[in-house]
Design goal:
The complex is a heterodimer of chains A (496) and B (161). With 496 residues, chain A is mostly beta strands. Chain A has one helix at residues 26-32; strands at residues 11-16, 43-48, 59-62, 73-76, 80-81, 84-85, 97-100, 107-110, 115-117, 120-125, 131-138, 145-147, 150-156, 162-169, 174-176, 179-183, 188-192, 198-202, 205-207, 212-218, 224-228, 231-233, 238-243, 249-253, 256-257, 278-280, 285-288, 366-367, 384-385, 403-405, 414-416, 421-426, 434-436, 441-444, 477-482, 489-492. Chain A has 1 helix and 36 strands. Chain B contains 5 helices and 9 strands.
C-alpha cells in the first residue's frame, strides 16, 4: 500500500511563503533546484505556507534531471501558516492557493518524476490565449503526477479559453485525487499521442466545466488515455468525450457521470445519469455526502495499479480496502466513542462524519443545548457558548462568532480508528475568542507504538497558547490526531 | 512601473539540463517586495524602472518568459484540441541583465560592487538595494541579441491581447 503523496529520498526541504521563508517566488526555488538531482542524490522539496490567502505566482518546472528516487516535490508544509492550516482539506477556500493572472500555465511540469501535491490553483485572464491551468506536456517525460490538486474557477474573459489539468503526451503522467471545478473549457484533458504509454486520471472529481469535464484523446495505436474512479457532473457539453480519432485506446472504468457518457466506451463499473450528492456543492465542498447512494463503494481498488498504485484520498484518508468510492473523496465513516455522550441513533450510529449527530440542526444560537456531540462541517449561524458539549470535531467553525467551552468535557474519549484522522480545528475566527479550560492529555488505549501522534496548537495572534490556561485567545487552533499504526489513539481528559 | 527583479547568480554547474544563466531574469515582483532568506543570497535583486509602457505586474512578468525557439514573446498556449502551440524552449530565460553592464552602471553611479561577494551564495550582498535602474540599455533580449527598447516593451505588453 502506498500513499499517492510520494516522498523523495534524501529530501532537501525549503520553505515558501511570505518574507521570512526561504522563498517568496516559485521560480526562484525552481531555478535554484534545477540540477542533476540524481547525480546530487537529493530530492528538492518546496513546502508552502499559506501566509497569504493566495499567491499570484506560477512555475515552469523544466530541466532538472530526476528519477524515481530523486525528484522535485511541491507540497504544503505541515501545520499552519499565518493564514491558517496549510493543507486545504479538500476545500478550495483553504490551504495554499496559487491564483495567477499571468498569461502562462500556473503549474507546468516538463521534467521526469516531479510531483505536485495538495495546492489550490486558479487562472484568470483577459486575453486571446487558450491555456491550461496545470499541465505536463512533453513526449519524453515520465512519472509526473499531480496529486490532491484543487483547480477552481478558471476563466479567460477574453477570446481565449482556460482548461483545468492537461496531461499531454508523456510516457505515463497522471492526475490523482484532484478536484477540477468550474473551469471554462475542459476540466481534465488526458491526451496520449504515442504508442506504448498510458496517461491517466484516477479518482478525480470534475464538475461544471464549460465544455467537457473529462476529455480523452488517444490518437496512436498502442497508446492509452485512461480514466478510473472519476466522478463527473455538470459538464456543459458533456461529462466525458473522446476526441482526436479512434486509433488509440480510451479506457474508462468505474467512473460516474451526471449525463449518459461515462459508459460510452464500454468499460466495467461505469455509472451514468446519476444525481450526485455532495456535502455542500454551493460552497465548493465536493466531499461525498453521507446520503450519497451512487459513488460510495462504487469504485475499484487501485492500490496495485501498474501505472500509479495508491490507497488514500483527498483528505489523506486511507481508502477502504475493496470498497473504494468514486471521486477524490473517500467518504469517511468514523465511530467515535464519547464518554458519557449520546451516540447517534439509528442509521447514523456508525456514520459520524460531517454532520451533526443526533437530530439538532442549529439555525440560531446554540446556548445551553443538551447535545452531547457536535461533529463535522457545521457552521451554526449563531454563537456557541456555555453548552454541555462533550465533543466538538470537524473542520468548519462559526465565522466571526465566539466559541466558549467552559468547564466541559470536550475532547473526552474521542477514539480515532486505525488509518483515520480526527481533527478539531477552529479557524476564520475573526474577532472571536476560544477559551479552553482544563488540561489536554493524550494517551494510548493499548501500549503499542503510535506513529505519528500530533497535537498541534498554532497561534499567530498577539497572544500566547497554553492548553491549561483558562482564557487564551487562539487564532487559529488546530488539534490533530493522526493514527496510521496498528493501534488506536485516544484523547482523554479527566480533569474537567 | 517599477519592479523588483531577481537575477540569476552563476552557480556551480550541477548538471541540470537547462539551467538559467548568470544575469537571467528569474523572477519579477512589484517594487518593494520582500524577498525570501535564500533568494537574497542566491539572486542579485534590482529595482528596475520599466517606464510607463508596462503598467501591470502581469505584463512585467513576461520578462520571465523562457526563450522559445521561434522567438515567441510568451507562451502561445494550446489549440482547440489541447495541443501545445509553443515551439521548443531553447533557453530557460529570454531576458537578462549582464553583470558587465551593471558593473559599468555601478561605477558611473559611484556604487562599489564586490562581485566576489555577490557570487558568494552563502552571504547576503545586495549592492544595488538603494538604487533604481532604468530598463533602457540595461535589459538584454538574448533571442534578438539587442537591448530592450520601449518599443519592445510595448510589444511585450500587447502580446496575446
Amino acid at each position: 500500500m502506498a500513499s499517492c503523496r510520494k516522498t523523495g529520498t534524501n529530501e532537501s526541504v525549503s520553505t515558501y511563503g511570505a518574507a521570512g521563508r526561504n522563498y517568496t517566488v516559485l521560480a526562484t526555488w525552481e531555478s535554484d533546484t534545477d540540477n542533476d538531482n540524481v547525480y546530487g542524490t537529493v530530492s528538492p522539496v518546496l513546502e508552502c505556507y499559506n501566509d497569504a490567502s493566495s499567491y499570484d505566482d506560477h512555475i515552469l518546472m523544466n530541466g532538472a534531471i530526476n528519477n524515481g528516487t530523486y525528484f522535485r516535490i511541491i507540497r504544503p508544509a505541515a501545520g499552519s501558516g499565518t493564514n491558517g492550516v496549510n493543507f486545504h482539506g479538500g476545500l478550495p477556500t483553504a490551504g495554499v492557493r496559487f491564483f495567477s493572472t499571468y498569461s502562462g500555465v500556473v503549474i507546468s511540469v516538463v521534467e521526469n518524476n516531479t510531483q505536485i501535491q495538495d495546492v489550490v490553483t486558479k487562472l484568470t485572464l483577459n486575453n486571446t490565449t487558450t491555456l491550461d491551468t496545470v499541465n505536463a506536456d512533453s513526449t519524453t517525460i515520465s512519472g509526473v503526477s499531480f496529486v490532491g490538486l484543487l483547480v477552481v474557477d478558471c476563466l479567460n474573459s477574453g477570446t481565449g479559453k482556460i482548461n483545468g489539468i492537461t496531461l499531454s503526451n508523456g510516457q505515463g503522467i497522471g492526475a490523482v485525487d484532484c478536484l477540477v471545478h468550474n473551469v471554462e473549457q475542459y476540466g481534465i484533458n488526458v491526451i496520449m499521442q504515442q504508442a506504448g504509454y498510458t496517461n491517466y486520471a484516477y479518482n478525480c472529481t470534475v464538475t461544471n466545466s464549460g465544455a467537457t469535464n473529462i476529455r480523452l484523446v488517444s490518437t496512436t495505436s498502442g497508446g492509452t488515455a485512461k480514466a478510473v474512479n472519476c466522478l463527473t457532473t455538470g459538464g456543459v457539453t458533456s461529462d466525458f468525450v473522446r476526441a482526436g480519432g479512434t486509433a488509440g485506446t480510451v479506457n474508462v472504468s468505474y467512473c460516474c457521470s451526471s449525463d449518459a457518457t461515462a459508459d460510452d466506451w464500454g468499460g466495467a463499473g461505469n455509472l451514468i445519469s446519476k444525481a450526485l450528492t455532495f456535502v455542500n456543492a454551493a460552497a465548493d465542498n465536493f466531499h461525498l455526502a453521507a446520503s450519497d447512494t451512487d459513488a460510495i463503494n462504487a469504485g475499484t481498488d487501485l492500490s496495485a495499479d501498474p501505472n500509479f498504485a495508491f490507497n488514500d484520498d483527498i483528505d489523506k484518508i486511507t481508502r477502504a480496502a475493496a470498497s473504494w468510492d468514486i471521486g477524490f473523496d473517500e467518504h469517511t465513516i468514523l465511530t467515535l466513542a464519547v464518554s458519557g455522550g449520546i451516540a447517534p441513533a439509528g442509521a447514523l450510529a456508525s456514520r459520524c462524519d460531517r454532520y451533526l449527530a443526533g437530530s439538532m440542526t442549529p439555525s440560531g444560537a446554540i446556548n445551553g443545548q443538551t447535545s452531547k456531540m457536535l461533529i463535522g462541517a457545521i457552521a451554526p449561524s449563531g454563537a456557541i457558548k456555555n453548552q454541555a458539549l462533550k465533543f466538538l470535531a470537524g473542520d468548519v467553525a462559526p465565522i466571526g462568532l465566539p466559541i466558549k467551552i467552559a468547564a466541559q468535557k470536550q475532547l473526552n474519549g474521542a477514539t480515532v480508528p486505525n488509518g483515520q484522522l480526527a481533527r478539531l480545528i477552529f479557524k476564520n475566527l475573526s474577532g472571536a475568542i476560544i477559551s479552553i479550560v482544563g488540561t489536554l492529555i493524550s494517551s494510548l488505549i493499548v501500549p503499542v507504538i503510535l506513529r505519528p501522534l500530533t497535537i498541534e496548537l498554532s497561534d499567530y495572534g498577539l497572544d500566547s497558547v497554553s492548553l491549561s490556561d483558562s482564557s487564551e485567545q487562539l487564532q487559529p487552533l488546530t488539534i490533530e490526531l493522526s493514527d496510521y499504526g496498528a493501534d488506536n489513539v485516544e484523547l482523554s481528559n479527566a480533569l474537567f | 512601473m517599477k519592479v523588483s527583479i531577481a537575477l540569476k547568480i552563476d552557480q556551480p554547474n550541477t548538471g541540470g539540463a537547462m539551467k538559467a544563466q548568470e544575469g537571467d531574469i528569474v523572477a519579477v515582483c512589484p517594487a518593494g517586495s520582500k524577498w525570501g532568506t535564500e533568494e537574497v543570497k542566491h539572486y542579485l535583486i534590482l529595482e528596475v524602472d520599466l517606464g510607463p509602457t508596462i503598467d501591470t505586474i502581469e505584463d512585467a512578468r513576461k520578462l520571465m518568459t523562457p526563450q522559445y525557439a521561434d522567438g515567441a514573446l510568451c507562451s502561445k498556449g494550446v489549440d482547440a484540441q489541447g495541443n501545445s502551440l509553443d515551439a521548443a524552449i531553447s533557453a530557460k530565460r529570454r531576458y537578462n541583465i549582464l553583470f558587465t553592464d551593471l558593473d559599468v552602471l555601478a561605477k558611473a553611479q559611484g556604487i562599489t560592487v564586490d562581485w566576489k561577494n555577490v557570487r558568494n551564495l552563502k552571504t547576503v550582498h545586495q549592492p544595488f538595494e538603494k538604487t533604481t535602474i532604468s530598463f533602457a540599455n540595461t535589459i538584454t533580449d538574448k533571442f534578438a541579441s539587442q537591448k530592450v527598447s520601449a518599443v519592445d516593451l510595448s510589444a511585450i505588453k500587447m502580446v496575446n491581447k
